[in-house]
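Standup notes
- DV: blocked on the single-chain target, sequence here:
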Amino acid sequence: MTTRAATEKLKSDGWKIVETTGFLHLIGPLWQRIVDGELEFALITEDKHHNRRGLVQGGVLMTFADRTCGITARHVSGKPTLATVQLDTHFVESGKIGEVLISKPHVVRATRSLIFITTEVTVDKRCIAMASGVFKILKNET
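- DV (later): unblocked, structure below
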């Protein structure tokens, strides 16, 4: 699927672009929607995401999982500032350039200071990667 066709499909399915800056802006755009009260995220893979074998670079998958879990942690906690304490990633299958990656993070447990989240990065029904993360709620800095 071309980037243009994938973009139109995401728009028609209710996805909206997440405003990003910094590193994520370089690999994005990142897409988001809410289904049944749960956040879902998408990333259209492009040539800029390829590794030496012409497949989706593992670092892209890890960044996508980290950011989508982090956004979900912020959403659930209502706190503006969190930090990734740990992110474990398992690469299950290769992603191909042109595919749309999907992440549907799930909160496993939330305490006053930590949020535990898992996600699968999928393409259609194929699991590409699994990740679990721990996010620390930080005190607001002034």
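- Follow-up: The mean pLDDT is 93.
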